[in-house]
Write a structure and sequence with these properties.
With 622 residues, the protein is α+β, with helices and mostly antiparallel strands. Helices cover 35% and strands 26% of the residues. It folds into 4 domains: 85 residues; 149 residues, Immunoglobulin-like; 223 residues, Roll (C8orf32 fold), CATH 3.10.620; 136 residues, CAP (Pathogenesis-related Protein p14a).
């Protein structure tokens, strides 16, 4: 049952959907294309047109969003109530209010939307989408647990030492779903420990070439839950002393590390002629414009929900689209992003992929490192793991595996494909180790990865590395919100329509065999299994089923392909340009039937692997 408020919201969603977008224009265009008369436009035909324009799907999604928003509000109220009752737990109520002076949108009509991603203490949320405007109103609250599962009695002075900021990432989202980074901001929440609650306006800085410009202001309020009597709050003097102590400590550690690395680098260059040209990477710039030691970009991630194994981790990271960071003019801009920014954007460069994958593998207890070197395409990073096993005579055998974080594939060091994939290894690192290659060879195929051998690798001081504060906050992954059944139906329907239109335009028939389409599903499941764990199951059963079904003397052809998007038009364009698929699409013969099947495998952060198979069975003409 719906409440009166929910009914009002649903009615608003329907009205907004009908008033907005180009729905009416699409319907008119469809009627014009099919040259329909008024007599032909009955209720059945109109419903068919509405389905083809995806009006029902979009409206259904808007109603679902309305329900989700209502549930989120109820959940927030319930959580706040639980903190108020349980005085042993501590919470931070973080509210995003109204934006001001977003001057980029002054006097402009735009169909872009804005969205915040908020990350704090392994708790990560996304705001609702709001229209991009001069004064966007986010009006959203998030409740963070400060206590943790094992610290129910945590006191305010202990919380004062929790020097972890609230991370804000603001993105713009275009009508096609594409995202762009607008601003990042780190907020120190600990002012609430001396005030109980604060309400402030923060300036949101631009990024990259616009880093010196202001995106706008955002109102933020923070409240400590449950409420604390004024006499029990942390005195402002103690708060300021803590901040000063941390600042001096961090500045001292950074200065000492910089002096140490300058001396370390000079020693390294003198070891062998040409070493000064090797791509040893000690510092990298983050999205805040700060140069930090590369080891601080890696942080072991434990208990990441939605990622169950190392292979699953590689598949997930490999599905995050690769996008090269570029300056205006096309040259590479090397910016290493924090986890929250990388995941919020939903794409990144090879460094973002490698640091995230390495961090997840470390969380699984693996001996993992980011590798800095060269691939066949130029400067590149990937991940390396070492695993020691017992061989003949109890001799230790170290197995080296390369993990290509852009694709999710992994290769043993002596795999012949390594020759063509990777060209040079300059250094490797994780959050607690840094080794630079001092061997004569840089070839990943031939390099000895015995890091403990000081004649092969120059290491950095463990004590120096341990003194550094990580650049990364612990994260959680957002659960997927994709309605895969609706999406799969939509992909298949649109691809069938595209195939029909393509063949009819060439005077060819196009009929579909739904039974055959359903029989293709096990094959798609196997393709995803192979990509994830490198193994397949039930292949013989599938092949036998197809052979039994295809009539005698008939030809069967199929072409599977995997996409990282859900755009049927782009999918069909790709298919028609693939030689095998093009041969299937243009097949000629008697008793010709086509089959199209799609399957979506969804991961956290709405990352997804979309498999599509187009197939045909027919009797060849003599």
């Amino acid at each position: 049952m719906y409440t009166q408020e929910q009914i009002r919201q649903i009615k608003g969603a329907i009205s907004s959907h009908l008033d907005s977008s180009d729905l009416i224009d699409k319907i008119k265009q469809k009627i014009k294309e099919e040259n329909l008369t008024q007599n032909q436009l009955d209720d059945k035909k109109l419903l068919e047109i509405l389905r083809e324009t995806q009006a029902f799907d979009k409206l259904s999604q808007e109603i679902k969003n309305t329900q989700l928003n209502t549930l989120r509000t109820q959940a927030d109220q319930f959580s706040q109530a639980s903190f108020a009752v349980d005085s042993k737990r501590r919470g931070l109520l973080f509210k995003l209010g109204k934006g001001k002076a977003f001057l980029e949108y002054l006097g402009k009509e735009t169909n872009k939307q804005l969205q915040f991603y908020v990350n704090f203490l392994k708790q990560r949320f996304s705001s609702n989408l709001v229209p991009a405007s001069v004064e966007p109103n986010f009006n959203e609250a998030f409740l963070f647990d400060l206590s943790g599962p094992d610290q129910m009695d945590i006191d305010l002075l202990t919380l004062l030492k929790l020097n972890v900021p609230v991370e804000l990432t603001l993105v713009t989202i275009g009508p096609d779903g594409s995202k762009s980074l607008l601003s990042t901001k780190q907020i120190d929440w600990r002012f609430v420990l001396s005030n109980g609650g604060v309400k402030l306006s923060f300036e949101l800085p631009g990024v990259d070439a616009k880093s010196k410009l202001s995106v706008g202001l955002i109102e933020v309020s923070m409240d400590l839950l449950p409420r604390v009597d004024k006499i029990d709050l942390v005195p402002e003097r103690v708060l300021e002393q803590q901040f000063d102590h941390e600042k001096k400590e961090i500045n001292t550690d950074i200065a000492n590390f910089y002096d140490y690395t300058a001396e370390w680098w000079n020693d390294y260059k003198q070891l062998r002629p040409g070493f000064e040209k090797r791509a040893v990477k000690i510092y990298a710039e983050d999205e805040y414009g700060v140069y930090k030691p590369v080891v601080t970009f890696v942080k072991p991630l434990y208990g990441i929900k939605g990622i169950d194994s190392s292979q699953h981790a590689a598949r997930f990271v490999g599905l995050i689209p690769y996008k090269r960071n570029e300056n205006p003019g096309g040259d590479k801009k090397e910016v290493w992003h924090t986890f929250n920014t990388f995941l919020s954007l939903g794409y990144g460069d090879c460094e973002d992929h490698s640091t995230l994958l390495c961090s997840i593998l470390l969380g699984f207890g693996m001996d993992a490192y980011v590798v800095v070197g060269f691939s066949s395409d130029g400067p590149h990073t990937w991940v390396l793991t070492r695993m020691t096993t017992k061989g003949v005579g109890d001799r230790d055998i170290t197995r080296i595996t390369f993990w290509e974080s852009l694709s999710g594939q992994k290769f043993e060091q002596k795999d012949p494909r390594v020759h063509s994939l990777y060209k040079k290894v300059a250094c490797v690192f994780n959050n607690r180790r840094f080794y630079a290659n001092i061997q004569e060879t840089e070839s990943p195929f031939h390099v000895d990865f015995s890091f403990e051998d000081e004649f092969l690798w120059k290491r950095m001081s463990q004590e120096r590395l341990n003194s550094l504060k990580t650049s990364q906050n612990t994260i959680s992954l957002l659960p997927p919100k994709l309605d895969i059944f609706t999406e799969e139906d939509n992909i298949e329907r649109e691809l069938r329509n595209s195939l029909q239109n393509y063949r009819r335009a060439r005077g060819q028939t196009c009929k579909f065999d739904e039974k055959l389409a359903n029989m293709l599903l096990p094959a798609l499941a196997n393709y995803e299994l192979e990509r994830t764990i490198g193994q397949t199951f039930g292949q013989e059963e599938f092949q036998n089923a197809i052979k039994s079904y295809i009539p005698e003397n008939h030809t069967f052809k199929a072409f599977p392909i995997q996409f990282n998007h859900r755009k049927p038009k782009e999918m069909f364009d790709t298919l028609i340009n693939a030689p095998i698929a093009e041969d299937i699409i243009n097949a000629r013969g008697d008793s010709i039937f086509f089959a199209i099947k799609s399957k979506i495998y969804v991961f956290p952060e709405n990352m997804h692997s979309v498999w599509v198979t187009v197939a045909v069975r027919y009797l060849e003409l003599d």
